[in-house]
Design brief:
- This protein has 646 residues and is of the alpha+beta class.
- The chain is built from 23 helices and 19 strands.
- Strands 12, 13, 14, 15, 16, 17, 18 and 19 form an 8-stranded mixed β-sheet that branches. The chain has a 5-stranded mixed β-sheet with strand order 9-8-7-10-11, sandwiched between helices.
Length: 646
């Protein structure tokens, strides 16, 4: 391999581009022929691409010693200002490190699946009479957990099923310990009434054991056990208990019939399965994940990665070490498997719509400690599940493309209605502000962002508004706009930052005038400011747009696509502001209960504190010295209270 740097004429000094390429070629020449991970950065320090290699030297050299022309690969290579590499011991380590870095660094030319909320579980809480509950978070060994489930609805549906068949309680322990008569759930036969002794501990534990076996996929064993129990009751002439057991069997049989799964036909490997189906179309992709736990199909969830077009364009470089040709679908599926199962538990069986690299599955086994088998041409029940997942992926992707098409049309309609001329319609950015409070209490401002034809929730911001008269929305708007754009204006002046293409404020001429004053003080373009003024009778669809630069008001029409977009963004800002305000208000109003949570603060000391300072807010605003002046509050306890409330 020829690693000789490009030469330059002795009387012509190197340009920065030539110098950068010379340095990169020298670094490439020094790379080892070992497994590892490489990262490319642009001049601004942004991450362009993260890749893994069986041989770092061979893989990285291919980027710099080939003519990629005007392709996406050539475009990326032309932007590389520096690179970093990490040598690892095995390909499995390289794969895991690569996808950890992709999730952390968000490179522009990699397929990226955003982290979603953690998966929910069904929790069987340890107790003399255990209860079933919905749970999301880290698990511990104190309780039993079943799942994960694809969504909250799947957990709640399973809890309802358990209530119908096994009649386990769902009430909190505080309620359970203080009942004097059975609740409504007992009356409608959704609970066996353990709180008031209407079922023995032995019988309740039998129902708990049957619940566990059912959730683990041992449905037929549960039915056989219930049938034996029913016969035993009949022989003992306990006909009422035999009838209750018969009803349990009937309810459980109906559930299994509704799921169209014959539990006795499922093999051990079919008890816990993830089914993954992928579809790529129109520059977008969807991976549909369906979960089977305990032999029960729990439902599915669709995932939509970003950077699909950029990443699949690099396929020639990504897969050059593999003998088979890798389609965009396989690239997306492999990216999902590698990124998703870094943090989520992996079942022993994966059913896939496309075959993936065996090295990926081997790495997954090493990482998880589970023997994982992947299959893409299943039979019988797994084939039915695969077909369902594929259909779900097709429908979800079609729905996404339709929604994005609609959003693009709305963006274009707004740009045309306001006579704007953005350089890139996909990069068109709107920031919208709203103020929320309750009678002047707990004032908060929200800033939501619309970009790339969709709301960007990760860029939302809330601002606590202080130092103003309660209820003064104009002063609140002045404060939030100043805080948002003061530093940004400095960056705009030096060319290191850019303003949004549009700044929406929820309000009419008053709010727009306040925004105008802020922008004038900061030297910003007044034409960016647009107020959303409610129309006659404050009816939806009659809103008018008010401009800070003196243009006359505009009414877009109740069926205008542009107005639909404005209303969507305004409503999102309103929702985000209200939820933040309510959370802040609740934090203040429920602070009293937090006093009781502080070790050493009992009912008497809490009462003294509230009486001395006139309420929770007064206690929160008090200093350590003030708190220590209360009878019974030591200096150490005062410091503990102050830390807990701030």
């Amino acid at each position: 391999m020829n690693d000789t740097p490009l030469s330059t004429a002795p009387d012509v000094p190197d340009t920065p581009v030539d110098a950068t390429r010379e340095r990169l070629l020298a670094e490439v020449a020094a790379l080892p022929s070992l497994p590892g991970v490489y990262r490319y950065y642009d001049a601004a320090g942004g991450v362009l691409y993260v890749g893994k290699a069986r041989s770092l030297k061979k893989r990285v050299s291919s980027y710099f010693h080939k003519d990629h022309g005007g392709t996406r690969i050539g475009h990326m290579v032309g932007r590389i200002a520096r690179m970093e590499t990490t040598v690892v011991r095995t390909e499995a380590e390289a794969l895991l490190l690569e996808n950890n870095l992709i999730k952390t660094l968000n490179p522009k030319f990699n397929i990226l699946f955003r982290d979603d909320k953690s998966y929910p579980y069904l929790k069987l809480v340890s107790h003399g009479f255990p209860r079933v509950a919905y749970y999301r978070g880290s698990v511990d060994k104190k309780h039993r957990y079943f799942g994960p489930y694809p969504g909250a609805w799947a957990v709640k549906e399973t809890i309802q099923l358990i209530q119908k068949v096994f009649r386990l309680r769902t009430c909190e322990d505080t309620v359970f310990n203080n009942r004097t008569r059975p609740c409504l759930l007992y009356q409608i036969r959704r609970c066996s009434g353990p709180c008031v002794g209407l079922i023995s501990a032995e019988d309740y534990q039998r129902d708990v054991a049957n619940t566990e076996r059912f959730l683990l996929g041992e449905q037929q064993e549960v039915i056989d056990g219930l049938q034996a129990q029913m016969l035993a009751y009949s022989e003992a002439l306990e006909f009422e208990r035999a009838a209750d057991t018969r009803n349990q069997i009937a309810a459980l049989s109906r559930v299994l019939h509704q799921q169209s799964v014959d539990a006795s036909s499922l093999s051990a490997t079919d008890k816990d399965v993830d089914i993954l189906a992928v579809r790529v179309q129109g520059g977008r992709a969807c991976v549909n994940l369906a979960m089977v736990r305990g032999g029960r199909h729990l439902g599915d969830r669709a995932y939509f990665p970003t950077h699909v077009e950029e990443a699949t364009a690099l396929s020639a470089e990504q897969v050059q070490e593999r003998a088979d040709e890798v389609s965009p679908e396989v690239q997306v599926l492999e990216a999902f498997i590698a990124q998703h199962y870094l943090d989520s538990p992996v079942p022993p069986q994966l059913v896939l719509s496309h075959p993936v690299d065996k090295a990926l599955i081997d790495a997954l086994c090493v990482h998880s400690g589970v023997k994982v088998t992947a299959q893409h041409q299943p039979r019988e029940q797994r084939r039915i599940w695969q077909d369902m997942a594929i259909k779900g992926a097709e429908l979800a992707l079609a729905r996404l493309l339709a929604e994005e098409g609609s959003q693009r049309e709305r963006t274009r309609a707004l740009v045309e209605a306001l006579d704007l001329a953005p350089e890139d319609m996909d990069a068109f950015r709107i920031e919208c502000f709203d103020i929320s409070h309750t009678a002047g209490e707990s004032t908060q401002a929200s800033c939501v962002v619309f970009e790339n034809h969709q709301m960007q929730s990760s860029q939302y911001r809330r601002y606590n508004i202080d130092g103003i008269t309660g209820g003064d929305d104009y002063a609140a708007m002045r404060q939030v706009l100043t805080r948002r754009y003061a530093k940004l204006a400095e960056g705009v002046a030096t060319g290191s930052a850019r303003m949004p293409d549009l700044v929406l404020v929820d309000g009419g001429r008053g709010q727009v005038s306040m925004a105008r004053e802020v922008f004038e003080e900061l030297g910003l373009d007044l034409s960016l400011i647009v107020g959303v003024e409610k129309g006659e009778g404050r009816k939806v669809g009659l809103e008018e747009l008010v401009f800070a630069d003196g243009r006359p008001k505009v009414y877009l029409g109740h069926d205008s696509a542009a107005l639909m977009l404005v209303a969507q963004i305004r409503d999102e800002a309103h929702r985000f502001a209200i939820t933040g305000m309510r959370a802040r208000r609740a934090k203040v109003r429920t602070g009293g209960s937090r006093l009781e949570d502080i070790p050493g603060v009992g009912p008497k000391k809490r009462a003294r504190l509230l009486q001395r300072f006139g309420g929770v807010r007064g206690v929160t605003n008090a200093g350590v010295d003030d708190l220590a002046g209360v009878d019974g509050i030591s200096r150490e306890l005062a410091e503990e209270i102050y830390r807990a409330l701030h």
